[in-house]
Amino acid sequence: MLSFRSCFAVLSVIGVALVFAAGWHLGRSGSDVSPVSQAEAAGGVVPGPNTVSPDRYAYYPGTEVLGEDEIRVVNCGSGMPDARRGQAAACWLVETGNGEKFIFDIGTGSMRNITSLMIPYEYLTKVFLTHLHTDHWGDLASLWAGGWTSGRPVPLEIWGPAGSNPKMGTKWAVERFLEAFNWDKVTREFAINPVPGQIKVHEFDYKPENHVVYQENGVTIRSWPAIHLADGPVSYTLEYAGLKIVLGGDTAPNKWFVKYAKGADFAIHEAFMTPDTFVTWYNQPPQLAWRACCAFHTSPEAFGKVMSQVKPRHAVAYHFNNEEATRYQLFQGIRQTYDGPLSMATDMMVWNVTKDKITERMGVSADNSWAVPGTVKQGPPVAGQPDPMSGFLKAGLWAPAYEAQNDMLDTYMKKYKLEKQNWRDKSGLPKK
Fold first, then answer.
1. Residues 92 and 217 both lie in one domain
2. C-alpha angle with apex 71: 68 to 73, nearest 5 degrees?
3. What string of DSSP letters covers 277-311?
4. What beta strand segments (E) does 180-311 contain?
5. Domain enclosing residue 419, as ranges
6. What is the pTM of this model?
7. Same domain (yes/no): 308, 357
8. Residue 237's beta-bridge partner residues?
9. Are residues 17 and 66 in the same domain?
10. Three-state SS for 217?
């Protein structure tokens, strides 16, 4: 079954073809009706062959300024722990009209999609984790190190829940993350600048209901408990300019979501794959498949029941491998219990939310995007950082290769007025 959006797009294409065909036929047959002189594109009229076409179904990153009272939501990952080339694990970017940007979960593979948005890394510093499964924070390493090497001037900040004991909480996890990547951290602190490698953790109690965990610059973010395998997971709501965005994270259907998501303009909640899909396509044993779908996650039918109670202006289902083998049966399952506005999330799907309307489009971006600079420059290396390379390795440098780059580097140093920084002295080669 095609979604309304897909059906509309198909019908639009068919309609355009019929209009062209009719105009061509009538024009050639000598009728008084003139041939069609304007091409009808989806969303409006294209007045000529060398003019701008409407972009109703496409969002081009970096080309659109949000209205002051507007929110944009980008799905940077909609899938499962086995991140695939065409679908990353869970990740949402929420941008508000005051310029703030918030990453909710950063699952494995999602940084490819975030990078394609070409947002300066200095603005991608606020991360909110729903819980600590890898498909919800596995790409933190890419944001941390990738932003560091691409010019981020400031530390990251992470908000996340505590657990039933300190070792199950966000603070413990991030501290051990930095320990695990210590070699990476120490070498970059010496070669680049230590500040962007820092992570500030804001850990909060997962138990309070509709609890404010962030409130700055007109944005309020609240949390409430989610039910998913162990104590700790949470759902979030972001409120801005009278708009309410809800991000469920991983959770079985629960009373808190039904209570606090009500009145949402935009509600995101998982709709997990069916037990048969887990057995047939995901290689799971039957005794696990039903529990994965329906005990500590939310089935399509249960998703629909939740949304029928919440009644958001727009609902979004995600957290399933989105392809022909799965999406239609999930859609049909949801429609058994919910008939409201619905999207089946796809990586790089984009929604603009205002009080008047909610517009859905697909992001169109380059596969090989470069990081773009912001207004604040990363600081230079800091004197006094211990050199992590031993004399043993430095003695192994091969001089002929270094000497082969003399002309290139001399030209470079002159171009950027770095002649005082003699690159030969900094090469590490033994002095002759």
1. yes
2. 155
3. HHHHTS---HHHHHHHHHTSS--HHHHHHHHHHH-
4. 199-204, 211-216, 219-225, 234-240, 243-247, 266-270
5. 389-432
6. 0.89
7. yes
8. 222, 246
9. no
10. coil
